[in-house]
Design goal:
Blueprint lengths: L6 E4 L5 H8 L3 E4 L8 H7 L5 E4 L7 H6 L5 E4 L9 H6 L3 E3 L6 H16 L2 H9 L20 E5 L3 H12 L3 E5 L6 H7 L1 E3 L3 H7 L2 E4 L13 H6 L5 E4 L8 H9 L5 E4 L10 H4 L4 E3 L8 H19 L12
Parallel strand pairs: 1-2, 1-3, 3-4, 4-5, 6-7, 6-9, 7-8, 9-10, 10-11, 11-12
(2R)-2,3-dihydroxypropanoic acid binds next to loops.
């Protein structure tokens, strides 16, 4: 009797090349956009699957993992994996994979672009033009902070933090950082980066504060009202990590009361919702979690997740699957 093919649930449409690859190894079910952002939808079907290729917006909770009696692997289409209850997965011998490395450059580029968009007011200047208000070159129009010589303070000096630092160096910025563990000396030297031993010190001395750390119990609401109190009033916050690292209402208030000068925000506390006070805050660029959104990167992310799934389904040893958590 022919062996039954394994079944994989891919929670959202992803690049075709990835789906074609997976299709050669298993039966695929592809969710509709947003369908599996609801835990209840996932609970209703998860029992049927051997593997789950999910998004950072898929709540892979304890309940889901307990219901997923046939699950052998959960592969996240993202480097961050705070949406997955990794501890429960481990206890049930379900492997978990993420997608490190392949999105580093796209995110580094994006962080730099976001910083430029905030400091040079791309969004409001474009709106001004489209609204027909550009009536001639203005010597005092849309002045912004120059980056050369300014200090970029990075919280979380992993791959993406370092990729942002490299680009900022090319713009003439000075780099300081805070990280759980100090990075090796040769990496500090390559970026000419100075380590500081507290978030408060970094926040009070940076012209731009960038969040590039994972969301953990330690980083939840790391940036709150008390931090906005000590950030210089001309400073800017950039967040491409995870929304809950910032107390979103406190950020909105800090912008409304000019405690800081601006923000570039790609991630939100309760995606897809954005705090209403933030939507009306001045000098901020708000984007729908698109830091890794290039054709090349999204395909590479998918392929890395897909390879982990196929390897696990084929019974390969963990040592041969580099992106298992
Ligand atoms: C990730 O992969 O974790 C990022 O949030 C993508 O932008």
């Amino acid at each position: 009797m022919a062996q039954q093919q394994a079944k994989i649930l891919v929670t959202e449409p992803i690049p075709n090349n990835v789906l074609n690859f997976l299709q050669q190894h298993a039966q695929l079910y592809i969710g509709k956009k947003g369908e599996y952002q609801k835990e209840s939808n996932l609970l209703a079907v998860i029992e049927n699957y051997d593997a789950l290729l999910c998004m950072l917006s898929t709540p892979v909770t304890k309940k889901v993992l307990e219901k997923g009696k046939n699950l052998k692997i959960v592969a996240n289409f993202a480097v961050g994996y705070n949406n997955i209850d990794v501890e429960t997965a481990r206890s049930k011998n379900i492997k978990v994979a993420n997608t490190p490395d392949v999105l580093t450059e796209a995110c580094g580029d994006f962080a730099m672009g976001l910083l430029m968009a905030v400091t040079r007011q791309f969004n409001s200047a474009e709106k001004y033009l489209r609204d027909g208000k550009f009536t001639g070159w203005e010597p005092l129009g849309f002045l912004g902070m120059e980056l050369r010589g300014k200090t970029l303070g990075i919280i979380g000096m992993g791959r993406i933090g370092q990729a942002f630092a490299q680009r900022a160096r090319a713009f003439g910025m000075n780099i300081t950082y805070f990280n759980r563990n100090r990075i090796p000396e040769f990496e500090e030297k390559a970026l000419d980066a100075n380590y500081v031993s507290s978030v408060r010190e970094l926040a009070s001395t940076s012209d731009v504060l960038s969040l590039n750390c994972p969301l953990t119990n330690d980083t939840y609401h790391l940036i709150d009202e008390s931090i906005f109190e000590i950030m210089p009033p001309h400073s800017i916050l950039i967040n491409i990590s995870r929304g809950p690292v910032v107390h979103e209402e406190a950020l909105a208030k800090a912008l409304h009361t000019s405690k800081i000068a601006g923000a570039g925000i790609d991630v939100f506390e309760e995606e897809p919702n954005v705090h209403p006070l933030l939507l009306t805050a001045p000098n901020c660029v708000l984007l729908p979690h698109i830091a890794s959104a290039t054709f090349e990167t999204r395909e590479a992310i998918g392929m890395l997740a897909a390879h982990a799934i196929v390897s696990v389904l084929e019974g390969k040893n963990d040592e041969n699957i580099p992106n298992l958590i």
